[in-house]
Amino acid sequence: MSLQDVFIEEMRDLYSAENQLVKALPKMAKACSDAELKAAIVKHLEETKGQVERLKQAFQILGKKPTGQHCNGMEGVVAEGKEAIESDEEGAVKDVQLIGAALRVEHYEIAGYTAAIGIAKELGQKEIAGLLTQTLNEEQTAGKTLLTSSKTLLKQAGSEDDADEEEDSDEPEDAEEAESKRKSEEDEAEAAPELQKRKK
Ligand code: FE
Ligand code: ZN
Ligand code: FE
Asked: What does pTM read for this prediction?
């Protein structure tokens, strides 16, 4: 496999990731209580549509189709976002959950674009590197905007918490949560042998 092939794979992965977000971001915006956070997500949804177009342009330059590779990573990140969207919490607490999910989305994209830009430059694809860099800048700005929103919302969520005395139980509430708990215990057990080798 040539570096050019790796490049096309990476870009197809990004194209799938952005398309998944065009579908997921409206649901995330709808789930937000805070007007500023909602507006930030709606704004980034519009940017995301432009990012899909930029990737199409890049594929036009390459003379290749943009489809061909599904981004499993973004599927997982979006699935975690769905947990936040469907959370029974409300107000600032739920918004904090949504910010956690949205930050994961942006940082996953930042990693993907950073990798792709490196390859584009190595291949001498200056125009494509330029397109990808415009998108990378938008992802970075989106991440920073989320952090700005989180400052007030964290304070609010923290004070809402004081009024809410009831302790949530750690017990799984449905089959999905039970499976998640089981797998987390499996994660711990599978890490144990390697962790034992840790130098003290
Ligand atoms: Fe994006
Ligand atoms: Zn991916
Ligand atoms: Fe993004």
From this structure: 0.94
